[in-house]
Write a structure and sequence with these properties.
- By secondary structure, this protein is mainly α.
- It starts with a helix and ends with a helix.
- The chain contains 5 helices and no strands.
- It has helices at residues 2-18, 28-49, 54-76, 82-103, 105-108.
Length: 110
Amino acid sequence: MVVAMVAGMAAFGGVAAVAGLDTSQIRPELDMLTMALGMAIGMTVWMRYRGHGWAGVLEMDAAMFVPFIGLFPLLWIDAISVDAMFGLGHVLMLPAMLAIMIRRRHEYSH
């Protein structure tokens, strides 16, 4: 799944670059959300290809966004830097994904 996420992020980032969209120059939150969207798109394609249902796919997609959204208030009050939000958000995605995989154990154990 991580390979699909990276592929989606790279493809989405490439399309955005060709379109002239540089979200990093607008707001760091928007940059993080567009990156999460790219990862979610790649993961959605891969999970649907592997036969996962939409409920599980959407939960896993949420695991791409929730860690960053949860860190936004810390960024706003200057408790963390943009770089820290970037790194910590990625690290927090993994336990979020693991929690969903444990919750839907039957979909991931075959």
